[in-house]
Amino acid sequence: MPVTPEAPQTRSRRRDDIAERFKWNLGDIFPDWSAWEEGYKSLETGIERYAALKGTLRGGAASLLNAFRLSEELGQLAYRVWYYPSLQYDEDQRDNTVNAKRQQVQILFARLSQAESWFNPELLAIPLETVRTWMDQYEPLRVYRFAIENLYRQQEHVLDEAGEKLMSLASRLAAAPNDSYWALSTADAKFPSITLSTGEHVTVSYGQYRALLATRRQQSDREAAFTALHDTYKAALNTYASLYNGVCQRDWFHARARGYESTLEAALHGDNIPTSVVENLIETTRAGVEPLRRYHRLRRKALGVPTYQIYDFSIPLVTFDKKYEYEEVLDWIVEAVAPLGPQYQARMREGFTGRWIDVYENEGKRSGAYSAPVYGTHPYMLLNYTDTLDDVFTLAHEMGHSMHTILSHEAQPFVYSSYTIFVAEVPSTLSEALLLEYMLKRSTDPAERIVLLQHAIDNITGTFFTQVMFADYELRAHRLIERDQPITSDILTDIYKSLLHDYYGDAVDTNPLTGITWARIPHFFSTPYYVYQYATCFASAARLAREIMQGNTATRDRYLDLLRSGGNDYPMEQLKKAGVDLSQPDTVRAVIDQLDDLVTRLETELHP
Ligand SMILES: [Zn+2]
């Protein structure tokens, strides 16, 4: 068992006592609240100005440009008006005054979107050919070409007025399965108590469950936590299945009503992603599960457990509690991105010295980590840095998002300055990959090397393989509905069991509760067909990182162009320009090869 080091409380939890250089400087957004107030007011009057433009688009190219430009002006201001109170609120969420201002902005945003609602139908009533002629003849309008054509593309599945009215009435029902899922799994859930081998009594909530699995070296404790939690899901399993049936039926209703061939096609249409991307992802991954199995066989052996089960996945192979001082790791993170060039490194340093980051936790501060893209200023990053290795990687991850934001905000006109989720996790993942290589190269501590390798491997198994398996499950379940087949708890459990077998083979043992873990995955109920994007981002990043680390400058330049391209094209096209084709198996195979390599390196570290 790890001995808790005598950690003197060097850092106060009071925000006032934390040195300024560890806190973000929101003064870059507005100098003070009265300046914010002015910004808020000009947004308010702008909303009225925009609403007054209704009915003007038929006036031609100049009128259309006028509407676009005002919308952009308001959009830019909206970032700063929103983030000033919002980031301040996250510093201390107990602050009611700031919270009230934040909510005030949310209300204003609802008015903004209402004031803008005339635009799409009015534009779409004009034939695309007419608008194309306007763009050909009027240069200032040309920058909006992609945005305009994308709007018309999405029009294909928009119904007539009566149809849209019916859909909007039905949308009130759409949230019911997910709302009920949360009520059942959280609000109404009775979490069981268990007694651990140490004699402690703990209540197994989901958060506690994860913590127990990641820290309890005694396998029977992990097993007890797993059994207790999953027994509660089992007790309501038919209800969970019925709710999931509701999710699939809703998706199929939506897809058919709007004229899509399948639920998958409907889900991917927004970003113009072909369904073959998900199909290829699943197929190629299924054919490449051997390194995943090898890793789990290695874990089984290293842990020396009589049976190796899914509740053994997150226990670290070695005990490791090295601390990483924040100011010490900043240089590493900058040096790690050397393959991306000195300019990239210099921009990154600016963020570290320019007080973009809120580093340490304090009472009332929002948990977790994020990078906030404050247009017109610079990105801001919230951390809760506690000197662990995971925190170092989180910093590198958020820095990857921030660099993406900086480069795309600088290079793109406002209309294309933000990027889609489909691309967003590429730079954050790549940033982590570069840091890992950098740290592995210089680490001489065998335990640290094992932990680094395990960190990288767990990223692949968790962010890639698990998410692909989830996508596989969603696709199978939705296809049952599309083929008029029933969905029951037995059917879902059978699907899940067969997936576990297809991915893990005999490398992992099962128990009577393993097959019902589908009921525990909130993504299935809240955001169907979403998680595959983590896997495609991961694959793209793996592919690019490999070439960049090999010193391929052409790939590096294409990658930096990808970051600079913001949202100026469909994400698949953006990635293709960077040399990543997600419709081809080799991109997905890059992850499988990477895992294979990492497992081999881990094997060597464990048995030198
Ligand atoms: Zn991220």
Describe this structure in words.
- A hairpin with a 5-residue loop joins β4 and β5.
- The N terminus is likely disordered.
- It is built from 25 helices and 5 strands.
- With 608 residues, the protein is mostly helical.
- A 3-stranded mixed beta sheet has the order 3-5-4, with helices on both faces. Strands 1-2 form a two-stranded antiparallel ribbon.
- The structure holds zinc ion.
Portion of residues in helices?
55-70%
* Uncertain segments: 1-10
Rg on CA atoms, Å: 26 Å
Report the end-to-end length measured between terminal Cα atoms: 24 Å
User: Major sheet: order of its strands?
Assistant: 3-5-4
| Strand-pairing-aware structural class | mainly alpha
Q: Can you list the ligands bound to this structure? A: zinc ion
Topology as H/E string?
HHHHHHHHEEHHHHHHHHEEEHHHHHHHHH
State mean pLDDT (0 to 100 scale).
Answer: 93
Percent range for β-strand residues: under 5%
- Any idea what the shape is? globular
Number of helices: 25
Largest sheet: 3 strands, mixed
Total strand segments: 5
Topology:
Elements lengths: L32 H19 L9 H31 L4 H20 L3 H6 L3 H10 L7 H11 L5 H14 L1 H12 L5 E3 L5 E3 L2 H10 L3 H17 L1 H21 L5 H6 L6 H12 L3 H14 L22 H11 L5 H12 L3 E2 L11 E4 L5 E4 L6 H23 L9 H22 L3 H37 L6 H16 L17 H5 L5 H18 L3 H12 L6 H7 L7 H22 L2
Parallel strand pairs: 3-5
Antiparallel strand pairs: 1-2, 4-5
Zinc ion binds next to helix 17 and helix 18.
Describe what is shown at a glance:
This protein has 608 residues and is mainly alpha-helical. It has helices spanning 33-51, 61-91, 96-115, 119-124, 128-137, 145-155, 161-174, 176-187, 206-215, 219-235, 237-257, 263-268, 275-286, 290-303, 326-336, 342-353, 389-411, 421-442, 446-482, 489-504, 522-526, 532-549, 553-564, 571-577, 585-606, and strands at 193-195, 201-203, 357-358, 370-373, 379-382.
